[in-house]
Design brief:
The structure is a single chain. The termini are far apart. This protein has 13 helices and 13 strands. α1 packs antiparallel against α8, α2 runs parallel beside α8 and α3 crosses α7. A hairpin with a 6-residue loop joins β9 and β10. It is an alpha/beta fold. An eight-stranded mixed sheet has the order 2-8-7-6-5-3-4-13, with helices on both faces. The chain has a three-stranded antiparallel sheet with strand order 9-10-12, with helices on one face.
Length: 407
């Protein structure tokens, strides 16, 4: 009998230096009665749509021995039709979630010696996209109201000579938006400040806003370096399908085609997404309800004496707690899972069904009497302490538990 060899540990492998000590990405996936932590649409597709999806998978299974359409042209055409604004298939790129879309963009326009610029607090995966593509990442604090304006963005681009800028609207985890007029001002200003800088507007939660049609997509004909990223994981109730996409000038789409892996979207992924798009009205029919639930929730939280960041998404930040982890744990003990993320003292809760919202409110009312609050000071909320430069990102998070859900 041969001697059993001890399994090698991660620390003993010749891992890249910037990956040492890192943990795999992932929000908590716990079996709880009320999961309000990853900003999903809680309403699944109808029986009719599920049956149509099953038939579509059965059809492509007949040719599963063959590779899928590597350009996903039928899917990209359907996505362009859904977006409108005169877009065509050559304006659209699709991948496995907007996470892969963003990775393609950084593979094409980031890399060694290039800088990606974000505005914190924001989606924590941005720094990991940069790390994984060997790009430098700079996180500049947002304004005290968690907004960004053209002056802040252009100044940061000039100071850090950014090659790619990430603008998130609505922003995760704050839910704050950037007016299209401000994005237009930023893109126009960059023509003088940094003409070749790519601007990526992440509209993962756009369908939840008060005016979903007020999108940066309208600016694409005027700004050739602008990209608008979307996902079907949120409003579309398609998180399990993993489909993200972007709209841009055809040259930017071609850049993504260069770096993508061959046949990156399976035949099944394309087929099911096409069914979802054909049934867009039904897939999105609860968005208005979720938007209303989120606005009612924010009002209720304020009535409990809590600080709430005004949100245009399907989630909101509330606090501020001296020990937010304790509040998070006590809610979990009552079967309600939310997120411990964002600036110090805040928690984030997703809009859910009326039953889920009632359970959250009841649990929070039990927890609040014992929850010590932080004293609000204007400068304490979010100060302009200057940018934190991260040559290998992952260290610039505002909390030890800020990694957010997939897009």
């Amino acid at each position: 009998m041969s001697e059993q060899v001890r399994p090698i540990t991660l620390d003993e492998l010749p891992l890249r230096d910037e990956l040492r000590g890192e943990e795999p990405y992932g929000a908590p996936q716990l079996d709880v009665p009320y999961a309000l932590n990853v900003n999903e649409n809680p309403y699944p597709p109808s029986d009719r749509v599920r049956e149509e999806m099953a038939r579509a998978v059965a059809e492509v299974a007949a040719n599963v021995n063959r590779y899928p359409d590597r350009e996903a042209l039928e899917l990209r055409t359907a996505l362009a039709d859904y977006l409108g604004f005169g877009l065509r298939a050559d304006n659209v790129w699709a991948a496995n979630g907007s996470n892969e879309v963003m990775t393609h963009l950084l593979q094409a326009f980031g890399g060694p010696g290039r800088t990606v610029l974000g505005f914190s607090p924001t989606y924590s995966m941005y720094s990991e996209y940069a790390r994984n593509t060997l790009s430098s990442y700079v996180a500049v604090p947002r304004l005290p109201d968690h907004q960004v304006d053209a002056e802040l963005v252009l100044s940061a681009v000039r100071e850090h000579q950014a090659d790619l800028v990430l603008l998130t609207t609505p922003n995760n985890p704050t839910g704050t938006t950037i007016p299209v007029s401000v994005i237009d001002e930023i893109c126009t200003g960059l023509q003088e400040v940094r003409p070749h800088c790519i601007v990526v507007v992440d509209e993962a939660y756009q369908e939840f806003t008060e005016l979903p049609e007020d999108s940066a997509l309208a600016l694409l004909p005027r700004h050739q370096h602008l990209v608008v990223s979307r996902t079907m994981s949120k409003a579309f109730a398609y998180a399990g399908g993993r489909l993200g996409y972007l709209a841009a000038t055809p040259a930017i789409v071609d850049a993504c085609r260069i770096v993508r892996l061959p046949y990156h979207l399976s035949a099944a992924s394309q087929a099911i997404a096409l069914v979802a798009l054909r049934n867009a009205d039904e897939m999105l029919q609860r968005v208005d309800l979720l938007r209303e639930q989120c606005q009612l929730l924010q009002e209720w939280l304020r009535n409990q004496g809590l600080d709430v960041v005004p949100s245009q998404a399907n989630f909101c930040l509330f606090g501020r707690f001296a020990d937010r982890h304790r509040v998070w744990q006590e809610l979990l003990d009552r079967g309600v899972l939310i997120r411990e993320t964002g600036p110090e003292g805040y928690l984030r809760v997703s809009a859910g069904t009326p039953e889920e919202m009632a359970a959250f409110r009841a649990a929070l009312l039990e927890v609040l009497p014992g929850a010590e609050r932080l004293t609000m000071r204007g400068a304490e909320r979010l100060t302009m302490r200057g940018a934190e430069r991260l040559t290998m990102p992952g260290a610039g998070r505002l909390s030890t538990n800020t990694d957010d859900e997939e897009h």
